[in-house]
C-alpha cells in the first residue's frame, strides 16, 4: 500500500467496550478484538480506529484518560495492544488510535498533583484553574458541552474549567509543558506502530476565559498545535491525522486541512443532513469544494459512537440530526429506516475519499432507545437531568451469534443489555443471508476497494429527487429519493441496495452501474 493509503481508505471504528469480550466480564477487550480480526479482514476494511483504550475511570467512556501511555486494565495490557497492532498489520489492517488533547481525567497524576500543589503552583498551570467571583460564583457562567456549569470548585476555593464532565479537567494549551507532553505521547504510540491519530475535540483547545460568552471553538492559536503534530507524524512513514471538529463554517474547517496540518477530518455535515436529494447533493458539493482545491481527501461518515444509528435516524419523520436534538423516542419506521440506511451506505461508499464505518452499522443495528434509566452511563443523561438520554443507545454490545443475549458477545452479562430481537441481526445470521446488511457492506467495500476510493466525481443530469454521478467514468451511482421507481442507465448492474422493481430502481434505493 502507498504512503497515502488513507486517502481512499475504508476505516472501521471499534468501540472496544462493546465490540467483543474475551474474558467474560461483560466488557469488550483486546482479546475479543484480536479474535475478531478475521471478521474485519473478511469485511474488507483497510484500518481500524479505536476509541480511547487508555486507563480510565470511564466517566465518559474512556474520554477521561488517566494515563496516555498505558492500556485500560479491563481492555488488556500494553503487550496485548502491541500484539494486536502486529496481528492486524499481518492481515493488511492498519490502526488509528484516539488522542484526547483537550482534557484528561481527574484521576490522572497531573491533576492529582495540581490539587495537592495548591493555587499559583506550576502544577496548576497545566490546567485552567481560576479564582471565583464574589459571592461564591465560578469565574464565569460558561456551560459544559455535557450540560451544567463548566466549572467545578476544589476544596481550597479555586475553580477549574471542564468543557465536558467535571471528571475531565481541561488542559492549559498555552503552557509549553502541555505541548511537549503531547508530542511525547504521539511519539510513544507512533513508535509502537500505530498508523493514524484521531484527534478528539480538536477545535476547542484554546479558551478566552475573560469572555462572558463561551469562547473556545476554533481559536486561531489551535493551528500551531497541529503544525507541531504534523511535523512529528511526518517523521514516520505512511502515518496520518484525522481531526474531530464539529464546525458549521466549512471555510474555517478547511484551514485545519492545510498542507502542514491534518491530512483529514471527519465530515459531519453529511451525517447531519436529512434524507433529501437536494440536501445530500448540497452537502457533497460543499464538501468537495472545500477539500478538492487544497488537495485534502474528503471523508464520509454515516455514524459513530456519538450519534443516532442510521437505521433509526432515517426511519424518523424528521431525518435530520444534531447533538442538540437527538429526537429520542420520536416514532420510527425501522423497515423504512433500514432501506434508506442501505441506500445511504452505497452512496457514501461511492463518494471520493475516505469512508468511516462504525461497528454495528454494517449489521444495521438500530439505536436502542429503551435502555433502563438506571443503566445509562453517558454523563449527558445525569447532567441534563434526564432531558437528554445521551449516547448509550448506539453503544450497545455487538450481537455475534446465537438466539439470545449476550449473542456471543462474551460469556458474561454485557455492560449494556442487548434487545432480545437482535437475534436476527447477529453476524452469524447475516453471514448466512445474501441479502443482509452485512452482505451489502461486504460486497460494497470489495467493489469500492478495486473501483472507487479517492478520485474524481462528475454529476450527471437527473430528475429532481435523484442523485446520479460517475466516478472516473467507469462506475455510475444512482440514488432514487423519489417515491416512484425510475429507469436505470444501460450497463452492467454491479450492486443495488434493495431489489429492483421489474428492472427499475425503486424508491430509497441506490444502484451501482458500470
Ligand atoms: C468527542 C468524543 C466524545 C467525547 C467528547 C469528549 O466528541 O467523540 O465521545 O464524549 O469528545 O472527549
Ligand atoms: Ca472483557
TrEMBL record:
The Glycosyl hydrolase family 13 catalytic domain, residue ranges: 13-395
Keyword Iron set for record: no
Enzyme class, broadest EC rank: hydrolase
Entry EC number(s): 3.2.1.20
SUPFAM superfamilies per UniProt: (Trans)glycosidases (SSF51445)
Signal peptide: none
Top-level taxon of origin: Bacteria
GO molecular function, one term: alpha-1,4-glucosidase activity
PANTHER family: ALPHA-AMYLASE FAMILY MEMBER, NEUTRAL AND BASIC AMINO ACID TRANSPORT PROTEIN RBAT
Family note: Belongs to the glycosyl hydrolase 13 family.
Protein name: Alpha-glucosidase
Organism listed in the record: Kribbella italica
Taxon lineage: Bacteria, Bacillati, Actinomycetota, Actinomycetes, Propionibacteriales
Amino acid at each position: 500500500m502507498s504512503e497515502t493509503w488513507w486517502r481512499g481508505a475504508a476505516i472501521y471504528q471499534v468501540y472496544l467496550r462493546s465490540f467483543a469480550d474475551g474474558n467474560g466480564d461483560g466488557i469488550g477487550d483486546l482479546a475479543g478484538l484480536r479474535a475478531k480480526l478475521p471478521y474485519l479482514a473478511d469485511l474488507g476494511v483497510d484500518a481500524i480506529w479505536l476509541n480511547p483504550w487508555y486507563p480510565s475511570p470511564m466517566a465518559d467512556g474512556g474520554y477521561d484518560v488517566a494515563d496516555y501511555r498505558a492500556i485500560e486494565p479491563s481492555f488488556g495490557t500494553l503487550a496485548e495492544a502491541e500484539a494486536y497492532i502486529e496481528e492486524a498489520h499481518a492481515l493488511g489492517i492498519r490502526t488509528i488510535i484516539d488522542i484526547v488533547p483537550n482534557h484528561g481525567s481527574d484521576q490522572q497524576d497531573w491533576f492529582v498533583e495540581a490539587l495537592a500543589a495548591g493555587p499559583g503552583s506550576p502544577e496548576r498551570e497545566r490546567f485552567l484553574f481560576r479564582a471565583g467571583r464574589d459571592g461564591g460564583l465560578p469565574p464565569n457562567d460558561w456551560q459544559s458541552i455535557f450540560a451544567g456549569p463548566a466549572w467545578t470548585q476544589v476544596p481550597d476555593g479555586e475553580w477549574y474549567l471542564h468543557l465536558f464532565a467535571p471528571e475531565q479537567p481541561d488542559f492549559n494549551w498555552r503552557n509549553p509543558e502541555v505541548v511537549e507532553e503531547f508530542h511525547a505521547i504521539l511519539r510513544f504510540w507512533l513508535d509502537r506502530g500505530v498508523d493514524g491519530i484521531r484527534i478528539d475535540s480538536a477545535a476547542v483547545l484554546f479558551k478566552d476565559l475573560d469572555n462572558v460568552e463561551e469562547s473556545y471553538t476554533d481559536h486561531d492559536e489551535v493551528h500551531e498545535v497541529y503544525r507541531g503534530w504534523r511535523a512529528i507524524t511526518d517523521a514516520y512513514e505512511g502515518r496520518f491525522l484525522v481531526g474531530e471538529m464539529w464546525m458549521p463554517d466549512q471555510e474555517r474547517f478547511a484551514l485545519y486541512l492545510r498542507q502542514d496540518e491534518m491530512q483529514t477530518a471527519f465530515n459531519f455535515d453529511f451525517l447531519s443532513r436529512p434524507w433529501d436529494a437536494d440536501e445530500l447533493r448540497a452537502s457533497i458539493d460543499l464538501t468537495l469544494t472545500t477539500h478538492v482545491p487544497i488537495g485534502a481527501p474528503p471523508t464520509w461518515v454515516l455514524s459513530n459512537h456519538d450519534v443516532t444509528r442510521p437505521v433509526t435516524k432515517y426511519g424518523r419523520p424528521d431525518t435530520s440530526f444534531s447533538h442538540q436534538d437527538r429526537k429520542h423516542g420520536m416514532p420510527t419506521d425501522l423497515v423504512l429506516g433500514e432501506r434508506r440506511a442501505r441506500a445511504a451506505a452505497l452512496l457514501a461508499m461511492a463518494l471520493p475519499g475516505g469512508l468511516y464505518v462504525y461497528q454495528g452499522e454494517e449489521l444495521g443495528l438500530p439505536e436502542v432507545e429503551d435502555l433502563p434509566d438506571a443503566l445509562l452511563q453517558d454523563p449527558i443523561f445525569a447532567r441534563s437531568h434526564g432531558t437528554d438520554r445521551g449516547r448509550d443507545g448506539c453503544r450497545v454490545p455487538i450481537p455475534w451469534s446465537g438466539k439470545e443475549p449476550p449473542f456471543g458477545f462474551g460469556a458474561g452479562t454485557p455492560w449494556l443489555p442487548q434487545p432480545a430481537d437482535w437475534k436476527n441481526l447477529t453476524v452469524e445470521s447475516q453471514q448466512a443471508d445474501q441479502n443482509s446488511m452485512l452482505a451489502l457492506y461486504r460486497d460494497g467495500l470489495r467493489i469500492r476497494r478495486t473501483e472507487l476510493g479517492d478520485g474524481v466525481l462528475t454529476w450527471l443530469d437527473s430528475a429532481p429527487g435523484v442523485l446520479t454521478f460517475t466516478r472516473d467514468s467507469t462506475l455510475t451511482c444512482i440514488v432514487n429519493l423519489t417515491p416512484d421507481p425510475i429507469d436505470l442507465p444501460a450497463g452492467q448492474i454491479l450492486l443495488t441496495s434493495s431489489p429492483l422493481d421489474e428492472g427499475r430502481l425503486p424508491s430509497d434505493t441506490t444502484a451501482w452501474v458500470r
